[in-house]
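Hello Y.,

Per our agreement to keep a running log of every chain we model this quarter, I'm adding this entry. I've kept the format consistent with earlier entries: sequence first, then predicted structure.
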Amino acid sequence: MGFAMISIMLFHQPFFYRNPFVDFFHLFGYWGVEVFLFVSGFGIVYSLKKNSIPIYYKNRLKRLLPSCLLAGFGKFAFVKMGFVSHIPVNTLLLLTSIYLWYIYALVIYYILAPLLYKTLNKSAVAFFISVCVFSFVCNYLPFGDNDNYFIKYIGWITSRLPVFVLGMIYALCPIRFSVKKTMIIGGGILIICMIIRLGIMIPKFHWHFPHTNLIILFATPMLCILFSYMHTFANKLKLSQISLFFGKFSLELYLWHEYLFWNICKDERFSSLNLYVKCALAVSISFFLAYLTHLLAKYIQDKVCKLFLRK
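Predicted structure for the entry above:
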């Protein structure tokens, strides 16, 4: 999760371009979201196995709502101060953080998870194929033409649903592939996806390849293993605390970083700073606000739990 969050932050950073390292992540860093959703689907299965559905929903609400509201109200305060980049017109979407497509998708996936879990227990393979077909068909539906936010971004949700379901399948029916075989097959698929992505992005080719998410999802288990190896390597270098920080505060970092990156990069109040200082400032404030949001969310959760226990 930590390395997935790092790749997403590098994908979103607007400070540096025309550098092989950052350009690589501008092209491929968003695939870290696939890892997030795969791991989320995997974890949801264990939550559903050990909890009743009411407790499952309460736990999901407890994890998402405090952090999303704190970040939303924090951004609302910044908007009143004149920092307005990357915020929606609708105040409710801002306050609840639903304007971030990933949060919107997570809410939908968490609501659907008990039904998905029940269906996968009956026929995992057939249902997974159905989800992939459904996702592919939705790719051609004109959701983006609608002005209503909740309809406009349904296509983003349907396109990532297969990888969430795949994570659930791995938890329910562990696939007996060796790590070596997973890396070889997944690595091959990943290279194909990278070539397709480059062909789409380079004007000379103008490739049109619909719905690459359906291909990359089969390389996602390999990405999870790769990130795990990277964490092990970081641990040997005594740097594992960095990836652990990014993993522990991944939700809060996601809620804050892009908004801060774009404001600090584009706002005239920071125009006198060079790009390196702007980048360091944006990252530092993102870390601080993510940490503060996490602490406040835990405090709220504890207070609410104590209140219910008294009753």
